[in-house]
From TrEMBL, chains A, B:
Key word Transport present: no
Record-linked CDD domains: HTH_ARSR
Name used for this protein in its record: Helix-turn-helix domain protein
NCBIfam families on file: HTH_metalloreg
SMART domains xrefs: HTH_ARSR
InterPro entries: ArsR-like_HTH (IPR011991), HTH_ArsR_DNA-bd_dom (IPR001845), Metal_resp_trans_reg (IPR051011), WH-like_DNA-bd_sf (IPR036388), WH_DNA-bd_sf (IPR036390)
Species of origin: Roseovarius halotolerans
Length: 110, 110
DNA sequence: TCCATATATCATGAAGTATTGATATATGGC
DNA sequence: GCCATATATCAATACTTCATGATATATGGA
């Protein structure tokens, strides 16, 4: 994850529909969702959603796989990890003491 | 941190100069940097930088404090934490098992 | 009060981005 | 091969964002 890639990813996440898509796909987990399902679930038109899925793909935040006539999309948690690590790297590299409490509060509630 | 706030923050981070500013201020730590210093360090013009600092302020990613004639800016780690927690919340809520390895890799290298 | 320094705001033009209707491509079933 | 379904691409318009020159505001010192 270099700076250019991070910028692309942040840009992808700075649009309401796309942020919704990523959250939806994270919840969908390994099952993923077909492009059409996603569009229906979020009340977006087919071609608009296709364009937005393309942006998220480009950003490395989602993946896809054809399944019959549909194309299923999945959250790319590895891509998300890379983005967060990019921010954390800056934080920890420059100021570990101030950074640690920040990380401590980000934990799975389970 | 609601969705609207997260969108503003992601938008703020999707611009090269602003991403550089945040990284710079994170490294500067509690000392912070004056607006003019930041502009000089990143090779940006005064008013352009002022506008970009305003965007980061609006997004809750940096803070400022007047010090004499200068205004010093600081990274707002609490704001950054809120943004990351917003993403993590989605992740952990929907898929704790897949999410944990992601969190495990984000640790301070120190 | 006057001047110099430091930063913010305003108005404008240029560039990028989103959405849309229309159309194209790809897959599966008959 | 033909049709229906599913998704992607294209071209155009509207919208937003960015950087800039010019100007305004605020602070400190003489």
């Amino acid at each position: 994850m270099d700076k250019t890639h991070a910028l692309t990813a942040f840009g992808a996440l700075s649009q309401p529909t796309r942020l919704d898509v990523l959250r939806l796909l994270i919840r969908a987990g390994d099952t993923g969702m077909a492009a059409g399902e996603i569009a229906t679930a979020l009340g977006a038109r087919q071609n608009t959603m296709s364009a937005n899925l393309g942006v998220l793909m480009q950003a490395g935040l989602i993946r896809n796989a054809r399944q019959g006539r549909s194309i299923r999309y999945f959250a790319d948690l590895e891509g998300l990890r890379g983005l967060l690590a990019f921010l954390m790297e800056d934080c920890c590299g420059g100021n570990p003491a101030a950074c640690q409490p920040l990380l401590d509060t980000i934990t799975c509630p389970s």
